[in-house]
């Protein structure tokens, strides 16, 4: 059964996933903060590396916008930890190894067993206020566009 992308205005599907911090991340525990879920296909691939390095470079701007960035992929925490170390990422990487979050958000490419690139901006009450699912996982949104959407929440 294909999973569908939850619509803007819907409550964000909750999840608890392992992260590179060693602590699990539960989405509902972040209520009261803006959250950007950034699903990406696979660590160490060219577009994913460029996207996450761009986020790293603008990390202070995300923090200044009071937004928690959760980069999520199906990679293991060990692979994500190495990815984080190699590129000096500021964000803790989140592992959706069992693909539950990607299915809940309708972004799992079942035939490839990884997610497409997708973004979900969640407001302080836990509702999805903006989403973008890339038609082609080799495309990505610019940080400028992400910041524009984050500013629109305030």
TL;DR of this structure?
This protein has 154 residues and is of the alpha+beta class. The chain has helices at residues 46-57, 59-64, 77-86, 100-104, 143-153; strands spanning 16-19, 25-26, 34-39, 67-73, 94-95, 108-109, 114-115, 118-122, 128-133.
Overview of the structural elements:
- With 154 residues, this protein is of the alpha+beta class.
- The chain has one domain: Glutaredoxin.
- Helix content is 29%, strand content 23%.
- It is built from five helices and nine strands.
- It has helices at residues 46-57, 59-64, 77-86, 100-104, 143-153, and strands at residues 16-19, 25-26, 34-39, 67-73, 94-95, 108-109, 114-115, 118-122, 128-133.
- The strands form two sheets. Strands 2-1-5-4-3-8-9 form a seven-stranded mixed beta sheet. Strands 6-7 form a two-stranded antiparallel sheet.
- The chain is globular and about 35 Å long.
- It starts with 15 loop residues before the first strand and ends with a helix.
- The model has no long low-confidence stretch (mean pLDDT 91).
């Amino acid at each position: 059964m294909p999973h569908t992308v939850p619509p803007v205005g819907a409550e964000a599907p909750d999840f608890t996933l392992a992260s590179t911090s060693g602590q699990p991340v539960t989405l509902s525990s972040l209520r009261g903060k803006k959250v950007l879920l950034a699903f990406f296909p696979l660590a160490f691939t060219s577009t994913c590396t460029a996207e996450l390095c761009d986020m790293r470079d603008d990390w202070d701007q995300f923090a200044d916008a009071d937004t928690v960035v959760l980069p999520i992929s199906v990679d293991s925490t060990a692979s994500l930890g190495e990815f984080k170390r190699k590129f000096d990422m500021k964000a803790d990487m989140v592992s959706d190894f069992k693909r539950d979050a990607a299915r809940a958000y309708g972004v799992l490419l079942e035939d490839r067993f990884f997610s497409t690139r997708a973004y979900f901006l969640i407001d302080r009450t836990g509702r999805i206020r903006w989403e973008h699912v890339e038609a082609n996982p080799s495309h990505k949104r610019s940080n400028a566009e992400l910041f524009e959407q984050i500013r629109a929440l305030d």
